[in-house]
Amino acid sequence: MSQTAKRNRVTDAERYRAVNAARERFLAGDDRVRGVRPEVATSWYRCREQYRVDPGLSQAPAASAQKESSSEHTLEHEIVFAQLGGAAASIASEVESAGGVVTVTDGTARILTVQGDKTTLTRARDSNMAPWSCWSEAATGTNGMGTALEAPGPVLISGPEHWCRGLDEWVCAGVAVRDAVTHDPVAVLDVSAWRSNLPAQAAGWLSKAVGGARAILRQRAHDSGAELAAAFTQTRAQSGQGLAALDASGRVIIADEAASLVLGVPARVQALDPAVRWQPTPDFRRLARHAIEQAQLDHGWVGSTQVVTELSGEPCRISLRPVFLVDQPIGTLAFFGSEHGEPIERERHEPGLAPPSRIVGVSGESMILLRPLEVQFAEADGNDVWLVTEEGRLQAAVRGIDKLEVELSGGEFLRVHRRFLVNLSRVRVVERGPRGDLSLIMDGTTHEAVPVSRRNVPTVRRALGL
Known about the structure:
Elements: H1 3-27, E1 33-34, H2 38-51, H3 75-97, E2 100-106, E3 111-116, H4 118-126, H5 137-140, H6 144-150, E4 155-158, E5 170-178, E6 185-194, H7 202-236, E7 242-247, E8 252-255, H8 257-263, H9 285-297, E9 303-308, E10 315-325, E11 328-336, E12 342-343, E13 359-363, E14 366-370, E15 375-381, E16 384-389, E17 392-396, H10 401-407, E18 413-417, E19 420-423, E20 427-432, E21 438-442, E22 449-452, H11 457-464
Parallel strand pairs: 9-12
Antiparallel strand pairs: 1-14, 2-3, 2-6, 4-5, 5-6, 7-8, 7-11, 9-10, 10-11, 13-14, 13-17, 15-16, 15-19, 16-17, 18-19, 20-21, 21-22
């Protein structure tokens, strides 16, 4: 063995011991984890605080025991699974020659197929890395398949980076395939090895294999957007009400002038690019998902409810009618000023969806767990999110301010601008601008000012009782 190889081997062993020691300290209650990659430390936090996974597990549970396994696969998902299965088969010989295995899971990390080196497959069965076992973080802790569902990109989990000690002999790399509209995970492709590092080309295998599945979902998103725009155009000629077309995630494809005033989005009556979509206010994500779920059960379903408009603060009646493409619901037409169809219950608070007790920040190689009160506001810089605290600016472990907003929903935090998420309990002064705009002065030592976008002014005024 060369001197370089010996040095690398020692370095790997030292890193293994350091990460293992950090995990043990974290299990004992230490909140400041050092020497562990942020994505791993964040996963550990979810496993300890949110999922409460037993770190003593040595194998994954059966999927039938998991709540997630009750989810139904759509025809679109089945097409993606078939494409990924073929892609996995195409790289199986390369993975096998490297002594590894390749797995395909659905969007809940339930394994659908596993293939590769026979010896490693035997080891995999000992860990229940087999079809119909569940490898989500909620079931099996930090691992390549489950953590890929939580992360924005590919993940590599090695040795004691796994939450469960019984999985420390594995090295695994996973990447999720996500819906191009909702960004929900549809499937995961993972390559794993036993007691050995993955070859450098493993990243290329994954990238090549998931490319086709992502292309299918992108084309589906384009087709669904075009179909929703066409349904809008056809219906608008027959309807005298405010009308908008919403995709499956509640974003606006197209809206007429009356609907645009309610939703706070640009008005247009002719479709341009069906891939261009807006996030409306109020938030239609829950209503859109509810409509899709009901339409899958009953193609004739129409629902109705009331939403509060941003401009007036008054409730507005709305009806939702699903739109279909190849017998699958792809979104809804929203009729404003109409209340026909089955009443949709207003969202009720669920204990399991309470905001987290801690927010994870990263400083160098340290993970810092902050109480929500310690964070004045969060600021987006592309996909990076910065937390402004009394300890200075810390990078959030979460990628994307949209995801942080969802995680903190139900608490004191409010999105006041596309780039800013503010802790309302830390607002000290509200400054009015000459054109009715607002700035929020925070109560920290630096008294930083946060701008409020014009569309969010009514919401901020109501939230602060102004």
